[in-house]
Specification:
The N and C termini lie far apart (79 Å). The protein has one domain (27-308). It has 13 helices and 2 strands. The chain has helices at residues 2-21, 25-34, 40-47, 50-65, 69-72, 93-116, 129-140, 154-162, 165-175, 182-208, 221-236, 275-282, 301-308, and strands spanning 213-214, 219-220. A two-stranded antiparallel ribbon has the order 1-2. By secondary structure, it is an all-alpha fold. Helix 4 (50-65) runs antiparallel to helix 6 (93-116). A hairpin with a 4-residue loop joins strand 1 and strand 2 (219-220). It binds 2-acetamido-2-deoxy-beta-D-glucopyranose (NAG) (3 copies).
């Protein structure tokens, strides 16, 4: 008995000292983020995406857990107001698990950006079902009855999610060539990779259901995505940068195929968007100076605020 206890104690002490000697990989990562200067010209470009990352984090956290950053990591909000109208979505176990993974990924993204640049507080977000219904009605050019509710069921929530990571990914593609510093570019490439992955997962799940009717509207999933993408093209105001799940073959890969599980330009290279294009889309106004939609008071940070001052 006594000798068992001795060995147990000795082993745990040894492990403890080894633990002290080995720096945790987390510390190493933070060090590599902080040990490099971020050029001044990169700061606004790196901070801007926080607007979208807050949106994604809150939507996915609420949908999967029923609560958001106020409970999960209040520090990350920097005192910004709580989102309006977000709530748990009716999700089956698999999709709920996937959305919770996305949610924590977005929490990670917020931290990754804030390790690199100071950032800003969470902007006011309107994630109410009415806010999503407004986007859907605008896309179809008529009021759906009953109004679209992203939280009502799994298919609706996947359609609502179709709106989210893709905007972030086009923004990261757009920001990358403007960045000067290697640390900035490394961060944006890493964020782009995961945002694109999220978009691909959502699109693949919807593609499986492309011909399914979204009830009670009798409109297929593919049609929903086409109309939502058309709306984003219209609001963005810079031509074709968004494509639904089923397209005329001329728009598919190599101009040869109607299935469009991933969106891309004629070379299947991801489209890019400027911060201004993104603001026009997420405000729903088509104008970076006119906030609204998911951002009733506009985005935060120098880029978004610079457009609001001109109002
Ligand atoms: C919260 O943020 C402050 C300021 O950035 C920081 O000093 C503090 O350690 C953070 N607390 C936690 C629990 O992360
Ligand atoms: C949230 O958006 C909906 C739909 O546009 C709107 O009716 C509601 O007033 C908004 N809430 C706030 C507080 O802005
Ligand atoms: C955007 O809105 C501002 C403020 O209302 C206005 O001055 C400007 O002309 C608008 N821009 C476009 C392109 O419509």
């Amino acid at each position: 008995m006594a000798s068992t206890t001795f060995w147990a104690t000795a082993t745990s002490m040894l492990l403890f000292f080894l633990f002290l000697l080995v720096p945790s990989s987390n510390c190493v990562d933070l060090e590599s983020y902080r040990s490099h200067e971020v050029p001044k010209s990169d700061v606004d470009l790196l901070e801007f995406p926080l607007n979208l990352e807050y949106f994604e984090a809150e939507l996915f956290l609420y949908a999967s857990l029923g609560y958001g950053l106020d409970k999960v990591d209040p520090n990350l909000t920097v005192g910004g107001p709580s989102p309006i109208g977000a709530k748990a979505a009716q999700l089956g176990p698999v999709i709920k698990d996937v959305i919770l993974q996305f949610a924590y990924q977005e929490v990670g993204h917020l931290k990754a950006i804030k390790k690199t640049v100071k950032g800003f507080p969470r902007p006011l977000l309107n994630l109410s079902k009415e806010s999503f219904a407004q986007v859907v009605d605008k896309a179809f050019g008529r009021a759906l009855k009953p109004p679209f509710d992203p939280y009502a069921n799994e298919l609706n929530f996947l359609i609502a999610s179709y709106l989210v990571p893709y905007v972030g990914l086009t923004g990261y593609v757009g920001a990358n060539p403007k960045l000067e510093g290697p640390v900035s570019r490394r961060l944006v490439a890493g964020l782009l990779g995961v945002e694109s992955g999220q978009d691909a997962v959502i699109r693949a799940l919807l593609y499986e259901r492309a011909n399914q009717k979204v009830e009670p509207y009798g409109i297929t999933v593919a049609e929903f995505t086409n109309w939502l993408s058309n709306l984003r093209n219209k609001l963005g105001g810079e031509g074709l940068k968004d494509e639904g799940l089923v397209v005329p073959p001329s728009l598919g890969a190599e101009g040869k195929i109607a299935g469009n599980v991933l969106a891309g330009d004629p070379y299947s290279v991801a489209y890019d968007r400027t911060a201004e294009e993104i603001l026009r889309i997420v405000y729903g106004s088509g104008n970076a100076s006119i906030p609204g939609g998911f951002y009733p008071k506009g985005g935060n940070g120098n880029i978004a605020r610079s457009h609001l001052q001109s109002v």
